[in-house]
Structure formats: C-alpha cells, structure tokens
Amino acid sequence: MSRHSSYRKGLSTRIYAVIAVVVVAAAAIGVYVTMGRITPSAPVKIVFAGWVSSGAEYQFDQNMVNLFNSQHKDVQVVFEPITSDYNTKLKTEIAAGDAPDVFYLDSSEAYTYIKNGLLLPLNSFVSSNSTYNISDFIPETIQAFEYNGNIYAIPKDWSPLGLFYNPTYFKQAGIPSPPRTWQ
Questions:
Q1: Count of alpha carbons within 13 Å of 171, Cβ hemisphere only?
Q2: Whose CA is closest to 125, among 17, 4, 31, 8?
Q3: 74: Cβ contacts below 8 Å, ≥ 6 apart
Q4: Per-residue confidence at 167, pLDDT binned at 50, 70, 90?
Q5: Is the distance from CB of 83 to CB of 90 less than 8 angstroms?
Q6: Distance linking the first and last C-alpha atoms of the chain
Q7: How much is the average pLDDT of 162-172?
Q8: Which residue in 5, 24, 112, 141 has the fewest CB atoms around it within 10 Å?
Q9: How far apart are CA 81 and CA 83, in angstroms?
Q10: What percent of the chain has pLDDT over 90?
C-alpha cells in the first residue's frame, strides 16, 4: 500500500501517549478496512513522521514503532524522522500529496491544520465508550487539539517553560523538595 492511499484525507507517560496516537491511526485504518473501503493484500502500511533532535529521541520513536509492529501483524508502521525544519518539510509533503499518515504536530500549529481540513476527527476513537481512555490527560492538553466539538489529535507530551515551587508548601505537606538540578 502506498503513502498516497485514497482513504487518507491528509493526514500518564510519553510512551503511552505516543503509542496511543499510532494505535488510534491503526484503528482508523481498521475501520476503513472493515467497511470495505480498502482491501489490503498485505499489512496496512502507516507512515509515522516525527521530529528528532537527538539519537536518544530517534531511538525512542523507533523502539516504539518496533514494539507496535511486533504486536500488530496486520499493520506495519514505518518511522520517517524529520531532523530539521520540521514544519516546512511537513507542509511541503502535505502540499505535494505525500504527507505521512501519522505525525507530531505542535499545538500552536493545530488550528491551521484543522481549519484547512488536514486532520481527521478522532472522536469515535476517544469517546467514553471506546477502549482508548483520554481521562488521564490534563483537559487543557486535549483542548489544544479540539475544534467545534471534535478532537483532532492526542498530546504526546507537554512541557513547561519554567517551573517554580514553594519549598514551604512541600515541607508542610511532608514532601521532600525537588532536587536543585535536573540530574
């Protein structure tokens, strides 16, 4: 199956969130297969793109893909890392009709992709009666990818620009203060 499939319109912890994105995409493809819209003769191929800034980050994503592939013989995920100028490369691939099936998307870019019809709503995969539970996510991280009552992406991670804490409150709660270094 090529990256230009007709069924494609465009497009707790970090590992579970990222695996969840791939699982949701695989489930979406499974629905199309079940509905008879495509008939695969081999495993369905899903291209997953993500930006990587280090060897460790690349290895994490590749290990995640390998784990998923080992557990799902009817779907083959191929990881295509983007190592520089991520947004430009992704937008170019979309414009050329050669976009990945699953990709990382910064929440600051999400609205543009949603408004241009480049993302599919995931509501049926993340509803209260589905097997995928999003209640563990901080609501604001989900809201960053919502529009008109639809959820278009699942956050893989979220990071603060700074972290401040009051050691007095930690002491009052009987919690040791965090270490003073990231190590």
A1: 3
A2: 31
A3: 30, 40, 43, 44
A4: confident
A5: no
A6: 45
A7: 86
A8: 112
A9: 6
A10: 45
Domain 14-172 has CATH 3.30.70.20: no
CB-CB contact of 86 with 6 (8 Å): no
Rounded Cα gap, residues 83 and 51, in angstroms:
6
Q: What is the pTM of this model?
A: 0.65
| Of 138, 134, 145, the residue nearest 107 (C-alpha) | 145
For residues 100 and 133, give the distance between their C-alpha atoms in angstroms, rounded to a whole number.
Answer: 25
What residue segments make up the domains of the chain, in order of their start?
14-172
pLDDT for 34 equals 47
Count of residues making up the chain: 183
What's the CA gap between 137 and 21, in Å, rounded? 13
Q: Which two tokens stand for residue 45?
A: 């191929």
Position 130, amino acid: S
The residue written with tokens 């995640």 in the block is 64
Taking Cα atoms as reference points, which of 109, 105, 104, 141 lies closest to residue 126?
141
Rounded to 10°, the helix 55-71/14-34 angle is 40
Q: Which two tokens stand for residue 117?
A: 């019809």
Residue 60: strand, helix, or coil: helix
The H-assigned helical ranges of the chain are: 14-34, 55-71, 86-95, 107-115, 123-126, 139-143, 167-172
